[in-house]
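User: RRM domain-containing protein. Structure?
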Amino acid sequence: MPPAQPLSENPPNHILFLTNLPEETNELMLSMLFNQFPGFKEVRLVPGRHDIAFVEFDNEVQAGAARDALQGFKITQNNAMKISFAKK
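Assistant: Predicted structure:
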């Protein structure tokens, strides 16, 4: 039997959904963090919400590699970033 996936996990997508971001987060900070990964395209912040963002890659494999590498990355001491695949 395969290991159970968390219920909240969406199927693989080329767009990542970031949560638990600190108030001072901006597109430049996230771009610098994610552009080290192949296939990075862009960061989109949600107007009026500092705590969530979307990061787009060329494909699902590249997005998954970035998600796995940066899951739990602390932008500040108190904010461990949560990364999931965006809903399609």
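The first helix runs from residue 27 to 34. The radius of gyration is 13 Å.
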